[in-house]
Amino acid sequence: MASISLCMIVKNEEDVLTRCLEGVRGFVDEIVIVDTGSQDRTRQVAEKYTDKIYDFPWDDDFSAARNYGLEKATKEYCMWLDADDVILPEEAEKIQRLKKILPKDVDTVMIKYATAFDEWGRPSFTYYRERILKNCSQCRFQGRVHEVIVPFGNILYEDIQIEHRKIRVWDPQRNLRIYEKMYREGQILEPREVYYYGRELLDHGRARDACKQFRKFLGMSGGWKEDKKEACRLLAYCYFLEEKRKKGVRTLLRALEYGQPGPALCCDLGKYFFDRGEWKDAVFWYEQALREDKEVFGFCQENCRGYLPCIQLCVCWYQLGDYDRARHYHQEAGRWNPKGEEYLKNVPFFETDAYGK
Are residues 127 and 148 both part of a single domain? Predict the structure, then answer.
């Protein structure tokens, strides 16, 4: 059976650390905690679960802190978590079963990460992360912020999910501040860092600055193709904000250079034609979003796999005069999300005996 060292960095996490560590008790063989400067009871909480607790001075470098913890791990595999991550009992059982059957030649286990949730508490934004990795020299984080271990060796994707359940927001400027500090220091950003710097700029309302970073990233030779697709989507969004619609749609289409479109890209292309009142072309892309039901390995907006295209198809078919299809997609939207705001607004209109007559 494989053995696992859980490696975590923490700071002022007394409110969530117990929740996290209770979730892993059944399957981890070692817990390594690196404290980067807690001033609450985080250490006392951690001491209930492990005696391997180390202090590490914080210097705006997540990888440095995480790698310090990885160096203390002694088991065959390392697993990392954030303090506000949650592993539900059924997911913990999956990891325990995986430990028993994990082939010796597997180096990296990719596990789904859910970081946003709808009004039902269901995951609305997911993506795969390298989560369990063979304890070796390649198992090291890169990047001062939005850090990553580059998946290596024999890679296995597993149907297991970890949920990121924040109960409070810390410093919303932190990541952007670190990137800008790197620039001031003259550090050359790697492709992935350029991409995430662009995302941080966009999240802080600096669309023009974000544009520059996305264009730079797309012009670089490195970078994961799923990030390239997403950069095209985000750059197009920036162009649409500036009313540069032709540039926007050309950038969306550029994403196809990096492989087949996912549901979100299909919805973006559908919206372009929807906004122009070109209903048949919009139908094509929204229906394509519904057909893209395979596993998505990049960022996945679950809404784009069902509810959003159904709501839009409802409008499209109504505009095209096909009232039966319009009602069908209204009902499909309700199946995807019975609490959806748009769906509920449409209920009085569609669900009457007089509709379509």
Answer: yes
Same domain, 160 and 175: no
What domain range includes position 329? 277-357
Query: Is 271 part of a structural domain of the chain?
Result: no
The 10s digit of each residue's pLDDT in 283-340 is 999 999 998 655 556 777 889 999 999 999 999 999 999 999 999 999 999 999 998 9
Same domain, 226 and 149: no
74 and 185 co-located in one domain = no
Same domain, 112 and 203: no
**Residues 128, 157: contact at Cβ < 8 Å?**
yes
Going through 49-154 in order, the beta strands assigned E by DSSP cover 53-55, 77-80, 85-86, 108-117, 123-134
Q: Which tokens in the block code for residue 346? A: 């449409």
Last residue of a domain, one of 116, 141, 164: 164
User: Is the domain of 23 the same as that of 147?
Assistant: yes
Assign 188 a pLDDT band (cuts: 50, 70, 90).
Answer: very high
Q: What angle do CA 171, 176, 182 make, to 5 degrees?
A: 125
pLDDT tens profile 17-28: 999 999 999 999
Per-residue pLDDT reduced to its tens digit, 45-63 = 999 999 999 999 999 999 9
Domain closes at, from 164, 196, 231: 164
Give every CB contact of residue 293 below 8 A, 6+ residues apart in sequence.
305
Q: Is 317 left (phi over 0), alpha (psi -120 to 50) or beta?
A: alpha
Q: Which amino acid is at 140?
A: R
Q: Beta strand 300-301 with 123-134: parallel, antiparallel or unpaired?
A: antiparallel
Transcribe 330-349 into DSSP letters. Answer: HHHHHHH-TT-HHHHHHHHH
**Domain harbouring 145, CATH code:** 3.90.550.10
Q: How many CB atoms lie within 10 A of CB 355?
A: 13
- For tokens 């010796």, what's the residue? 104
- HSE-up of 45 (CA within 13 Å, CB side)? 22
